[in-house]
Design a protein that fits this description.
The chain has 576 residues and is an all-alpha fold. The protein is built from 25 helices and 5 strands.
Amino acid sequence: MSIPGELERARHLALASDETAAKELLLSLMPQIEEADRDDWMMETLAQLGELYLVRTAYDGVREGALRIRACLAVYASILAGTATADVVEKSTFTTTEMRHLIRRYGRRAGFLETGLAAAIGDHEGAAVALAALDDGDDEFADLADEHAYLLIYARIVCAEGLCGDDLHVRSVALWDKVIRHLDSSTGSDELADNLRVLGGIGYARFCIETGRLDEAEPWLRRVEARAAARGWELATARARLERGAASWSAGDRVSTEARMYEAYPVIANYARANDVSRCWLFFGLTRLSAGGLKVADECWEHAERHWRELGKPLHIHRILLQRSWISIFRGRYAEAVEMVTQARACLDSSPRSSWLAYARLDDHLGNIWRAEALADLGFDGAGRPDDDWETAEARYQAGARTTGAEPGTDQHRVAMQKLERAAELKVPASLAVDSVRYSVADAEARAQWATCVSAPLLAGAFAVALEWENTDLVSQLVEYHSARGTFSAEVSDAAALEWSSVSTAAAPITDVDELALVAAGPPITDGTGLTRLGPLPPLRMDPLTGPVLDHYRLLAFERYGQCVTAAESVWETWP
């Protein structure tokens, strides 16, 4: 087969996710291309290799491919500019038009690699600049229009996935909107068109799952799975099933989650996609834990942690460490759980994409450990014991009647109350800070999703620890806060706020929390329909002899996370 034919075959292998065979084929062609002295073939080879390396997270190879393409194009640019030496000009066999064509085509291919590399390593600002350069709007060569459109959509998918991988979901919305509009309007039926449909469909569906839009994710995944299966693309089919399993877990369907993970995992493991392998192990662990299998769940999460450490993803590592710490909590090994939280905090500290919300959730989880230890001191029958083996720990975890037995006034009771106080110092400020974000969400559905999926679990924990601490005053203050958390009045609509709030829904992973923090701490947001002013309440005072409710915890929320829980207005008195 001719070299152009072999390059086309390598492209076919790559689209089928057989990157190893594609790479070996491309590397085998390079000596022949050098002997033929064809720079266009060599740049095509480097561009395809760069795409393979990008998919397999071999970022040095991506960087090298882009640099070598740029270096070759610089020679042709010098010839066109009249600055090249005579021997360089003599060696060139291309016409002026052909050289311009090469520069335009492979400049874009190099630009795609640079965009994808920046997005993959978390340089999202650099990726945005590279993406803007790739979207040059130049239509000098009509035969390059389809390839340009393909590269542009592919680059947007990569950038959007990179943003979501760093929990910057809000920033990805504009990119996903362009991707989806292209996919909806595309009439192409070749492999490249289907590749975009599959990559875009899987990426967008995952975005929907992570932001609580399960109903929107399901049809995309069904279409992707059917299209990939028709093409014989095993890995793409398995990845679609993985995301359907993730959606099933979010919907509370453990049986479907486990079934789809079992379908997806063998193929994903065979293709050695470390991030997807880790996600399979994460869900395997969740399903095992829900069935009471502490040991198996810990083993699953250990596998997930190892793969994410190999990939060097600090945000993912911090999440799996928090997940694994639950096993230590259930086994009564609280110091071990605290050590995992300490490691998770170090991961957040090392990540340029860490957010106040991630730290708030981490503090809340540290409060969970203090609470669990306090309950053990109170004689909680489901609490594990450090010296129990796995079998005993699992039996205790499954059989506990959730009762306590320590009598008030005993040493155990007194120590437990001190630990619950420490838990409250962590959990209450974190819950107030997270709940304050809802004041920035004008859209009623989006606000409800944030309240249900993000605020509610933390607020429930704050109520629980206050009740177990037997602090009736704190419980009453939380009730007062919970009963009146926002204000409404008729004011002029703010279209920008509406546009922003319509994309601020988030289920488990967070949205663009830096932006959320800025908006939530600012003035009230307006909504053009119905009750139109949404914002935090002024400080509330329930008793003329005391200060505003939750004053101490609101101050901690601001000091730790920069979140203003109440508006800077006069105190409201809530007694008759």
